[in-house]
Design a protein that fits this description.
The chain has about 350 residues and is α+β, with helices and mostly antiparallel strands. It is built from 5 helices and 20 strands. The strands form 5 sheets. Strands 15, 16, 17, 18, 19 and 20 form a 6-stranded mixed beta sheet that branches. Strands 8, 9, 10, 13 and 14 form a 5-stranded antiparallel beta sheet that branches. A 4-stranded mixed beta sheet has the order 2-1-3-4. The longest helix has 15 residues. The termini are far apart.
Length: about 350
């Protein structure tokens, strides 16, 4: 009996390693710098979010109506995509991950508490950092399934926000001078990255994105990143992640470059292309190609290598779409986007 009890306890302990996870709530707001009701609602919105940094984060889309909004003009297309996604007809509108919009108000504490209390089948570990030149961003998002789940049309969305745009030189007509959590860019775009529908306990996927920092960013020190898993069938957000400030570069890496140094041609291609780069120092290098699901479709290790590298590769068997090629050494990593049609 004693041995059976110990076995049962061991099984329970092992099973508890994976269970539903604490939800981090995402609040999406649609607002505008020339909208009087937005100016009235946003102070309360910001106070609620400031009081719940451990439970929730916000992302604000500056729309194109009813008047002028310089932040919308800096990235109108991705904002319009999210407006169409939710069918936004007026501002301010917001949703707390339910897929349902609420108009002309700010989320309450009870709204956040209610969503925070709903367990999630995922965890998200999100980090971002800048390269040495401080002109490119590198984002890493690790999703882990903690309870088996099947979704209808799941997607991962990743966005760059500015935590505070303080008194910009040009603004709208509603009197607002301070704008928080403004969406500035989405990766790879507002449509996001298609995810597997069925997830099993312990399944992990890693997604990386790299790009130049947009020139319209007001202050790079205010850059944050947000990621979320959303089932497009219901528009419900399954889990969110937040990286409030840039991390230090990964262990052993002193620089990250975006779309530099690696030559890929032709690009786009039908899946058959040639890649080349020049390693100026002797090091152990890893050449890797991953698809948008984080699956590695090619990997090669070059030990004690220096000089010119050139190789013809073929990813056509893995399907059309976006791929990420990385060349990493002990001190540097370079990322290149590849498109197969």
């Amino acid at each position: 009996m004693k041995n059976t009890s110990l076995l049962l306890a061991s099984l329970i302990s092992a099973g508890s390693l994976f269970a539903q996870s604490q939800r981090f709530v995402l609040i999406e707001e649609f607002t505008q710098a020339s909208c009087p009701p937005c100016a009235q609602a946003n102070p309360g919105f910001d106070r609620t979010m400031a009081a719940n940094t451990a439970k929730a984060t916000a992302i604000k889309y500056q729309v194109s109506w009813p008047g002028a909004d310089p932040m919308n003009k800096q990235n109108p297309t991705e904002v319009a995509t999210r407006v169409k996604y939710y069918g936004v007809g007026g501002v301010p509108d917001w949703t707390a991950g339910t897929g349902t919009l609420t108009n002309n108000s700010a989320p309450s504490q009870s709204t956040i508490d209610k969503q925070y209390a709903i367990p999630s089948p995922f965890t998200i570990d999100l980090k971002h950092w800048f390269n040495v030149a401080n002109d490119s961003i590198f984002i890493k998002c690790v999703i882990t399934c903690t309870q088996a789940v099947t979704l209808t049309t799941p997607a991962l969305r990743v966005a760059m926000t500015e935590k505070l745009i303080d008194d910009p030189k040009s603004t709208g007509t509603n009197g607002e001078k301070h704008f928080t959590d403004v969406m500035r860019k989405m990766y790879p775009d507002a449509a996001g990255t298609v995810l597997d529908k069925a997830w099993t306990v312990g399944q992990t996927k890693t997604f990386t994105f790299s790009a130049k920092i947009p020139t319209y960013i007001y202050k790079k020190a205010q850059i944050a990143t947000v990621s979320w898993i959303q089932d497009d069938g219901s528009k419900k957000v399954q889990q969110a992640g937040y990286s409030p400030s840039a991390s230090t570069l990964p262990t052993g890496i002193t620089n990250v470059k975006a779309d530099n140094s690696i030559d890929v041609y032709p690009n786009p291609s039908n899946g058959l292309f040639t890649t080349s780069f020049n390693a100026t120092t002797v090091d152990n290098y890893t050449v890797k190609i991953s698809n948008t699901l984080g699956q590695v479709v090619f990997q090669e290790t070059l030990n004690n290598f220096s000089g010119n590298y050139s190789k013809q590769m073929d990813v056509s068997a893995f399907g059309k779409g976006l791929y990420m090629m990385s060349v990493s050494g002990s001190k540097n990593e370079t990322i290149k986007k590849i498109v197969a049609y």
